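Exercise: predict the fold of this chain.
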Amino acid sequence: MSARPDAPSITARPLTAEAFAPFGQVIDTAGTAPRPMNAGMARRFHDLAAIEVVGDGARTVIGLVEAQPYPLPLRLTLVERHPLGAQAFVPLSAAPFLVVVCPDADGRPGRPQAFVTAPRQGICYARGTWHGVLTPFGARQDFVVIDRGGPGVNLEEHVFADPWTIHLPGVD
């Protein structure tokens, strides 16, 4: 699907902890010293991200997501945020995926930013961060999702009047 020539467009860049810091945390074992466990038969990379949840009856929940790939370039029409809790996605394969976030602009999403994960990197969106949906490309992927469960409305969505086109670097 080809975008209009005047459609807003951005190119994704590699995901780094520094670039993603305003939006949350990168979940990555690089730079983290593992702790031995199980009599040295396993290594644990501990405390890679904090999952903040707020509200009466809130709890942290763990789930699995089977996600279908998106065609590229991505046509970004919708972003969402979760005001009551952080949300983490940890891939169960080494395949990269696309991460789209927007700064908050007076309660609405600002200009999107896009990142491509390195092999085995995950992300944890900070509470209240505008973000695109889970976006694998190339092939179906499975993810562990860690987020908030409990009462309260923990989803806001925004539909862009003019969709953005997201390109991968050096592709399409």
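Check your answer against the key: The two ends are 11 Å apart (CA to CA).
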